[in-house]
């Protein structure tokens, strides 16, 4: 019989310690998939995936550490059975974000142990934290903020100084990789796992379908329907104006969300004489791989990117909804759903 688990195992179910603990529990897979004792773990696994689709996984310690922990492999089985790449990315990202929230409350010693779990060469001294540059670059190269670029950091003796907050962020990336790396799982061929979880899988498919429909905008991109903020950002980019990162990100993620491909977007940004294709392509492709949702109007306003708002803007809270309405014929009525990003 395994000892009572540390609730941290349920918070960090992807670690080698959590895996070893589950192995010690020695629960046969058919039992986990079918026995009444694990009903709540299966429901929780499904809920975990649906919460990921909705954008935020909440911990549920009420069901007990063991069941919460077991819901993690079940969630991974469900994701694998659905077999959708978008779901895999979204699920891994949501798990990693939930972990990041938990890491905020952890002491530095624990973070260092977590760093070891991912093979990060990191040291803590009176001067702060320093990480081997190769481990830094492995995760930092994906960050949007230019402050993460190696050229903007002090590199000395092969290490980069980082803050505790940055360390947590690097850990989030490492965790996301681990969660995503093993998916879809190679499920045992002799057991019909997907059949055993079929009711849960159906609910996940419904949630996934609803999410995709919410963001799907049919037909070719229609620049005449772009909201003023996005039209302005694109016009500035085409004139070679060096826009703030937040505005470039808003324009790129918006165009991706309405279904444009990276090549089309690079072409759209290519109006200016000093257009730097490789730099633009790098930025666009970086955003393309991450399933971002374009920022809503509140965020656009906060960053000073809500420019040229017109009367239709008064009816929307998101540039994507402006676009939808305009495509439908602008003046049309009806409720407007807010993408939750
Ligand atoms: S209100 Fe929203 S859609 Fe309209 S310009 Fe501002 S950010 Fe864009």
Q: How would you describe what is shown here?
A:
It is globular, with a radius of gyration of 23 Å. It is 56% helix and 4% strand. It folds into three domains: 7-83 and 184-213, no CATH class; 105-178, no CATH class; 223-328, no CATH class. The model is unreliable at 331-341 (pLDDT under 50). Helix 4 (39-54) crosses helix 5 and helix 5 (65-82) crosses helix 11 (198-215). It has a four-stranded antiparallel beta sheet. The protein has helices at residues 7-11, 16-25, 29-34, 39-54, 65-82, 85-103, 108-117, 133-140, 164-181, 193-196, 198-215, 228-238, 245-257, 262-268, 277-288, 297-302, 319-328, and strands spanning 122-125, 128-132, 155-156, 159-162. The chain contains 17 helices and four strands. Strand 3 and strand 4 (159-162) form a beta hairpin. It has 341 residues and is mostly helical. Bound molecules: iron/sulfur cluster. Residues 227-229, 297, 300, 306, 308-309, 313, 316, 319, 322 line the site of iron/sulfur cluster (SF4).
Give the SSE order as H and E letters: HHHHHHHEEHEEHHHHHHHHH
Report the strand count. Answer: 4
Straight-line distance between termini: 44 Å
Please, what is the average pLDDT? 85
Compile the SSE list and pairings.
Blueprint: H1 7-11, H2 16-25, H3 29-34, H4 39-54, H5 65-82, H6 85-103, H7 108-117, E1 122-125, E2 128-132, H8 133-140, E3 155-156, E4 159-162, H9 164-181, H10 193-196, H11 198-215, H12 228-238, H13 245-257, H14 262-268, H15 277-288, H16 297-302, H17 319-328
Antiparallel strand pairs: 1-2, 2-4, 3-4
Bound molecules: iron/sulfur cluster.
The site of iron/sulfur cluster (SF4) has 12 residues, from helix 12, helix 16 and helix 17.
């Amino acid at each position: 019989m395994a000892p009572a688990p540390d609730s941290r195992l349920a918070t960090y179910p992807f670690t080698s310690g959590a895996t070893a603990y589950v192995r010690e529990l020695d629960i046969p897979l058919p039992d986990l998939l079918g026995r009444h004792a694990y009903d709540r773990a299966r429901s929780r696994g499904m809920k975990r995936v649906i919460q990921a689709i909705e954008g935020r996984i909440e911990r549920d310690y009420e069901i007990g550490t063991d069941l919460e922990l077991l819901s993690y492999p079940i969630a991974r089985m469900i994701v694998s059975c659905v077999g959708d790449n978008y779901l895999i990315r979204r699920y891994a990202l949501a798990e990693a974000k939930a972990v990041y929230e938990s890491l905020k409350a952890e002491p530095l010693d624990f973070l260092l142990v977590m760093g070891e779990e991912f093979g990060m060469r990191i040291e803590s001294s009176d001067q702060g934290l320093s990480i081997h540059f190769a481990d830094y670059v492995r995760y930092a190269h994906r960050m949007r903020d230019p402050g993460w670029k190696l050229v903007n950091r002090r590199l000395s003796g092969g290490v980069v100084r980082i803050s505790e907050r940055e360390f947590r962020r690097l850990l989030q990336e490492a965790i996301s990789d681990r969660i995503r790396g093993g998916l879809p799982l190679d499920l045992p061929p002799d057991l019909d796992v997907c059949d055993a979880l079929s009711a849960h899988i159906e609910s996940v498919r419904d949630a996934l379908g609803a999410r995709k429909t919410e963001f799907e905008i049919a037909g070719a991109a229609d620049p005449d329907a772009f909201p003023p903020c996005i039209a302005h950002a694109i016009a500035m980019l085409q004139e070679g104006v060096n826009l703030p990162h937040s505005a470039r990100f808003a324009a790129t993620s918006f165009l991706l969300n309405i279904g444009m491909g990276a090549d089309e977007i690079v072409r759209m940004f290519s109006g200016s004489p000093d257009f730097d294709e490789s730099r633009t392509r790098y930025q666009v492709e970086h955003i393309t791989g991450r399933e971002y949702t374009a920022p809503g109007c509140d965020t656009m306003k906060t960053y000073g990117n809500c420019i040229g708002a017109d009367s239709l803007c008064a009816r929307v809270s998101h540039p994507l909804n402006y676009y939808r309405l305009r495509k439908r014929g602008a003046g049309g009525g009806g409720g407007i759903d807010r993408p939750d990003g």
